[in-house]
Amino acid sequence: MYTGNTKNLGVIGDPILHSLSPVMHNQALLAANLDYVYIAMQVKSHVLTEAVNGLRSLNFRGFNVTIPHKTNILPLLDTLDEDAQAIGAVNTVVNDNGCLKGYNTDVFGFVSALEKHGFSIAGKKVVVLGAGGAARAVIWGLIKQHAARLTIGVRNPDKAADLVTYFRKYMDIRLFHWQQESFTAELVQADLLVNTTPLGMFPHGDAMPPVPWEQLNPAAFVYDIIYTPTKTLFLQKAAEYGHPILNGEEMLVGQGAAAFKLWTGQEPSAEVMLTALQTTLAKQQTQQK
Ligand code: NAP
After folding, report:
1. Fewer CB within 10 Å of terminal CB in the chain, N or C?
2. Burial code of 93-102, b = ≥16 C-beta within 10 A, e = fewer?
């Protein structure tokens, strides 16, 4: 039962209808017996300032931020943590008595999922496919965890050049068109291959980035941050060639769990969050078929 004591949480974005965060957080809050409620709020870009100031005034304990506000929200916040500052994007805001601090918990989500599966990034050679919004958190996670070599493969290197130049102040990063021959040489020696493109995402399950599977090191870990479907064509191929594989569900749960802890001070049940996520995804996919 919600009362006058109930603390408010939520997510802002546009569109917001299919956000998985409300169900993930509300189930975890319920399981932890915490007096909070988490709601989805559609916020159009032209009213972002009013919305953020409104959440501050209404004393929301915190909120998540999703597309298209992850970058535009930066000047509206009072302070940023190291990851949000480095990436230039915020996915979580904490409201401490009117002071709004921005975080990026996607970085933790990405790294912690790998660690849970026994893969340690330090000293490893990594190839990342794609250079969009999610890739920023992935690249920063790899830099922070001391990857030894970092290569990005994309369909349009000119478009990715600014992002790569930005992160080159932290480590040497190679950028290739993913059909360039020299890119294959990078793939061959990779310990970890990460797909951050939406290729293969529901309902376009028959797409995947171009990878010469037969040439890869069979021990290479293959990670697709897509979470719908649970096993993209990219991961199916990787599994066929004997690679250890991981999808994006645990990254999503990890970023949510980190936000939950920032707001409530408590560790949520990752299992409850994952089950809520998988149940909702299954329902959404049935409805969309
Ligand atoms: P984005 O900002 O649009 O970036 C997508 C990247 O993929 C860009 O480099 C883009 O290249 C490339 N790309 C897009 N369509 C392509 C195509 N048809 N062929 C080749 N390259 C293509 O998207 P995003 O926000 O980074 O999200 C990417 C994926 O990550 C989505 O599937 C999303 O669901 C997933 N994601 C997962 C999590 C998680 O927690 N697991 C979190 C965030 C995102 P161009 O620049 O050339 O268009």
Report:
1. N
2. bbbeeeebbb
36 CB neighbour count, 10 Å cutoff: 20
Helix 270-288 to helix 21-31 angle (10° resolution) is 150
For ligand 1, whether the C-beta of 13 sits within 6 Å is: no
Q: Is it the case that residue 31 has pLDDT exceeding 80? A: yes
Q: Is residue 62 a contact partner of residue 112, using CB atoms and an 8 Å limit?
A: no
Q: Is the pTM of this model over 0.85?
A: yes
**CA trace torsion 212, 218, 221, 222 (10° rounding):** 30
Q: Burial level of 224, CB count in 10 A (0-12/13-18/19+)?
A: buried
What is the residue with the minimal CA distance to atom 40 of ligand 1? 252
Does any ligand 1 atom lie closer than 6 A to the CB of residue 94? no
- Cβ 69 vs Cβ 75: under 8 Å: no
Amino acid letter for position 223: Y
